[in-house]
Amino acid sequence: MHRADRPGDAMVAGGQHIQGPGPGWGVPPAPCPPGAKAGLGGQSSWARPGPPPACSPSWCLPLQDLLHQPHCCPLSPSPSAQEPGACPSPLQAMMTLQLIMFALVTGHVGGETRIIKGYECPPHSQPWQAALFQKTRLLCGATLIAPRWLLTAAHCRKPRYVVHLGAHSLGRQDGCEQTRTATKSFPHPDFNNSLPNKDHRNDIMLVKMVTPAHLTWAVRPLTVSPRCVPAGANCLISGWGTMSSPQLHLPHTLRCANVTIIKHRECEDAYPGNITDTMVCASVRKEGKDSCQGDSGGPLVCNGSLQGIISWGQDPCAVSKKPGVYTKVCKYVDWIQKTMENN
């Protein structure tokens, strides 16, 4: 069943780079103009005409658009370029991350630590993670892949979404959050919308936000690569879905789990007749880690790129020899690029 089937569930979850949409993308790299400085990565360039969208008053990462080009950052960003709130500085975030890593190493982590047997993500370590709401109900997860574009599962389709970006806790804000609306959805044309809970093929959809995200260290797009990862690759899944199954236990904060891509034949053996070459399976066999109800549409991240969209799997979740099934994003790069360019 899809990871978003149950009513009332809270829903979330190297290589060539595709070209971004719209006029102005693909401007050749150029030195930073007067009044701007390079990001921390060194070389800088304008990704497109107009003010760079990747800057904040105290921090400037070498954020990259889909052309893999860092942005220039104004030495004194204008107030209009800033999001309200008091988002912790990267130094504060790094200190938090160090404390969390120390806790993980020494074992001093209290309470449940799962998506299904996962752990709490270090705050803002998944800056591409988005949450799609329908009014006040959490519907699905999604991945920011460009300032105005999200990638999610087609079975999550609704007429309108409220998009939450930069969140760690959905119940308590820390100043990093951004909220956008989205009214345009582009499911894959071959997705069977008449049988969304039975036919899992082509379970992929683009969502266009009304206004672009303000790119900061806590809100960043994730690379989409046409290079598929092999079996055995180590990957990470994230989401706000249930932490236990079949009982529902919803988390307060974003959860992560480390999973491994399994061989296509093993995936076919687990779900006879239901696996296509546009799907990929991942799990941790001995520990039972998995995505579950509420994680639909969220990312499967491998080698720094988006390789999967949380789609469907066994109910209850994390059953031995029943891996999670993901839409294989590398098979859809041409469709993603053309859809963004034409809309």
Characterise the protein shown here.
The chain has 343 residues and is mainly beta. The protein has a domain at 119-342: Thrombin, subunit H (Beta Barrel). 10% of the residues lie in helices and 25% in strands. The protein has 3 helices and 16 strands. The strands form 3 sheets. Strands 11-12-13-16-15-14 form a 6-stranded antiparallel beta barrel. Strands 4-5-6-9-8-7 form a 6-stranded antiparallel beta barrel. Strands 1-2 form a two-stranded antiparallel sheet. The longest helix is centred in the N-terminal third of the chain and has 17 residues, at 90-106.
What key phrases describe this protein's structure?
single chain; 343 residues; mainly beta; Thrombin, subunit H; 25% strand
Q: What class would the helix/strand composition place it in?
A: mainly beta
CATH architecture of the domain at 119-342: Beta Barrel
Beta-strand portion reads 15-25%
- CATH topology grouping of the domain at 119-342: Thrombin, subunit H
Q: Could you write a compact summary of the structure shown?
A:
GO terms for molecular function: serine-type endopeptidase activity. With 343 residues, this protein is mainly beta.
Secondary structure elements and their pairing?
Layout: E1 36-38, E2 72-74, H1 90-106, E3 119-120, E4 129-134, E5 137-146, E6 149-152, E7 161-165, E8 178-187, E9 205-209, E10 223-224, E11 234-239, E12 255-261, H2 264-270, E13 279-283, E14 299-302, E15 305-312, E16 324-328, H3 333-342
Parallel strand pairs: 10-15
Antiparallel strand pairs: 1-2, 3-12, 4-5, 4-7, 5-6, 6-9, 7-8, 8-9, 11-12, 11-14, 12-13, 13-16, 14-15, 15-16
Domain Peptidase S1: 115-341
Protein name: Kallikrein related peptidase 11
GO molecular function: serine-type endopeptidase activity
